[in-house]
Amino acid sequence: YQRIVLAARPRGPVVAENFRLEQVAVPALADGEVLLRNHYLSLDPYMRGRMSAAKSYAASQALDETMIGNTVGQVVASRHADFAAGDYAAGLLGWAEMGAAHGSALRKLDIAQVPLSVYLGAAGMPGMAAWYGLTQIILPKAGETVVVSAASGAVGSVVGQLAKLRGCRVVGIAGGAAKCAHVRDVLGFDACVDYKAGRPEADLAAATPDGVDGIFENVGGATLDAALARTNAFARIALCGLIGGFNGQEMPLKNSRILLIKRLSLRGFIVTEHMELWPQGLQELAALVAAGQLKYHETIADGLAAAPQAFIGLLQGQNLGKQLVRLI
Ligand code: NDP
């Protein structure tokens, strides 16, 4: 089967030459292991961090090894009591058409109500990041205003809809008129600021007449500054991601003074450090998807060979909603 390995660490923006497509043999299964055929690979911003050698919350991805990645697929063979051929499962099998993992590292999936691919998005890790930051850090009350950046993306789209369901006014920030129209008209946000339209601060001020009580931050830098400028006293900030600095750019904050003046609380989080909450969060997310109350959009690249370009596109904002690679 085919896999993609990290061939070289990026210097600045990610380029296709950072990756290498290889053919590898199907492994023999050890006791307890399961062999999966991956149907979808998830492309996520965190992979950019793993490609670099710089210190972060997780170790770097090794050179010449399969690129890390969340996958969903179907069991081909199993030496684990909980899995049988034909079962659907989520795992971390990487940028590869197939792979083996211990059964304890896989999550069995029920695709009767929720499509398989959605377990990589709204009902998977990105959905959980949205759920965690909103329900554990922002703690929104009905009537409050919540701002979310990268609003049309995998995480942001879920944040806004969950906050709407909790009775908040929700304002997104996204790049481009088409993304903003999607955020408003399909996802049901109250407003969306197109930060590429030239006057993000003024547009955000107009969209938040009652100020801002919660910020779900995915970008950082000027985007966070614009939201900070609108905060009410005791607003909460869930710092989920800093994609605006993914190529090593500095992200100075002009409005750090507001943290004091408005007595704000800001907390960063890594969703995979809170696995004890996943069953509760995933249950809520899957139920909302099944009921049609949580909308999602997917941008799907076809075939493993298309993954590097799709990943580069994700880091340039070319995706709408969850970026996936279809492998079958
Ligand atoms: P998205 O689906 O939102 O895709 C990334 C989006 O980010 C792009 O579409 C683009 O949207 C925006 N973007 C890309 N580059 C830039 C840039 N230089 N400046 C501003 N915006 C940019 O990705 P996810 O929903 O998967 O992830 C969103 C954020 O959440 C990321 O920061 C990610 O690292 C973080 N995250 C954190 C987790 C945690 O546990 N803390 C878990 C999961 C995700 P646009 O065109 O609107 O700019």
What does this structure look like?
The chain has 2 domains: 2-120 and 297-326, Medium-chain alcohol dehydrogenases, catalytic domain (Quinone Oxidoreductase, Chain A, domain 1, Alpha-Beta Complex); 125-272, Rossmann fold, CATH 3.40.50. Strands 3, 4, 5, 6, 7, 14 and 15 form a 7-stranded mixed sheet that branches. Strands 10-9-8-11-12-13 form a 6-stranded parallel sheet, sandwiched between helices. A two-stranded antiparallel ribbon has the order 1-2. It is an alpha/beta fold and 328 residues long. It has helices at 46-51, 125-138, 154-165, 177-186, 200-207, 222-228, 256-261, 278-290, 307-315; strands spanning 2-6, 19-23, 33-42, 71-78, 88-91, 98-102, 107-109, 145-149, 169-174, 191-194, 212-217, 231-239, 265-268, 298-302, 322-326. The longest helix has 14 residues, at 125-138. Helix 9 (307-315) links the parallel strand 14 (298-302) and strand 15 (322-326). It contains 9 helices and 15 strands. 45% of the residues are buried. The chain is globular. The model has no long low-confidence stretch (mean pLDDT 97). The protein binds NADPH dihydro-nicotinamide-adenine-dinucleotide phosphate. NADPH dihydro-nicotinamide-adenine-dinucleotide phosphate binds next to helix 2, helix 3 and helix 9. NADPH dihydro-nicotinamide-adenine-dinucleotide phosphate is lined by residues 44-46, 126, 129, 150, 152-156, 174-175, 179, 218-219, 240-241, 243-244, 269-271, 314-315, 317, 319.
